[in-house]
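User: Sequence recovery, please. Input:
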């Protein structure tokens, strides 16, 4: 691989972005690439907006992704997908959980949650892969596995074989939660958008 690949993981604190970055980072390492993963930026403990960068290639010097550089934006929440859209490359893809989490201005009544976010993003000629991964996780047995279902959904766009991704999930998830997370991954991977 001559060029660097960039993945942004965006969402709201408490949605599992750290585990998601660990799984993706492990998949990249299994494929033999150099990888840099940033710290979570934002108010992860308070339900605020969070972003994590994953960059990989033959040699990566910095974990930071600039505007227009993300190959994939993995979004745990609809509004966060719209917020981080300027960071997507022209030929990039947004993989998004259709869950809506009201930010503080909506909770206080100062604003309303925007309608039709996926359609508005698609209208900008952006490839969007959207699914209710929270429901997929519930089907797997635990809604906390929504992040792993979202990684499954992203799996076809990462360019890695599914076995590498499965192995990365096994490496990253504690054994007592592995069965439900593997089910969530498979449901996400097999989801037809």
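Assistant: Recovered sequence (193 residues):
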């Amino acid at each position: 691989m001559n060029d660097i690949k960039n993945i942004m993981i965006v969402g709201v604190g408490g949605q599992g972005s750290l585990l998601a970055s660990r799984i993706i980072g492990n998949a990249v390492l299994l494929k033999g690439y150099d990888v840099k993963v940033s710290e979570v930026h934002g108010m992860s403990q308070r339900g605020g907006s969070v972003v994590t960068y994953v960059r990989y290639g033959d040699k990566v010097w910095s974990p930071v992704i600039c505007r227009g550089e993300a190959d994939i934006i993995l979004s745990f929440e609809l509004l966060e997908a719209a917020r981080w859209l300027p960071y997507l490359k022209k030929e990039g893809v947004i993989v998004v959980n259709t869950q809506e989490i009201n930010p503080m201005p909506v909770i206080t009544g100062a604003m309303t949650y925007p309608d039709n976010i996926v359609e508005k993003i698609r209208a900008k000629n952006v490839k969007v892969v959207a699914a209710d991964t929270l429901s997929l996780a519930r089907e797997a047995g635990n809604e906390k596995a929504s992040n792993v279902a979202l990684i499954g959904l992203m799996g076809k766009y990462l360019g890695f074989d599914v076995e590498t991704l499965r192995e990365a999930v096994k490496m990253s998830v504690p054994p007592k939660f592995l069965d439900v997370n593997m089910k969530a991954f498979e449901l996400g991977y097999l989801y037809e958008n």
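The first strand starts at residue 5 and ends at 12.
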